[in-house]
């Protein structure tokens, strides 16, 4: 494992567009020996965010930097506003989040162990720092690829209305 201090400047880290959201990998599992990864979810546009999913072997934590996000879990729902922290524990709790406002939200996501950032790299499109791609509805081919890659990375996807 790398024993050096790692510094990621504001223009560094891989930027990717993931289903209409803009993410930047601040530190990857490759840099932490697989222990954790930190993803700056710079742009979660109105209507953005993943549908119901679970990853039983990964803990996922979110800090809301700007805006607000509605989190849904099997245990209920929660509106996380600027400054809020949300923890999705190990064990496979089904969860989702959506930006239901008309302004962009900004989240900082930490995953333990790493791996989610590799999933994002594989399903996303590399973009330049500061670039934003307009969300496009996924094709059936893209949805099929998303399902296959989710399973590859230990995730299970659920129908959009699963938590309703």
TrEMBL record:
<dbReference type="InterPro" id="IPR011051">
    <property type="entry name" value="RmlC_Cupin_sf"/>
</dbReference>
<feature type="domain" description="Cupin type-2">
    <location>
        <begin position="42"/>
        <end position="110"/>
    </location>
</feature>
<dbReference type="InterPro" id="IPR013096">
    <property type="entry name" value="Cupin_2"/>
</dbReference>
<dbReference type="Pfam" id="PF07883">
    <property type="entry name" value="Cupin_2"/>
</dbReference>
<protein>
    <submittedName>
        <fullName>Cupin domain-containing protein</fullName>
    </submittedName>
</protein>
<dbReference type="InterPro" id="IPR014710">
    <property type="entry name" value="RmlC-like_jellyroll"/>
</dbReference>
<dbReference type="InterPro" id="IPR053146">
    <property type="entry name" value="QDO-like"/>
</dbReference>
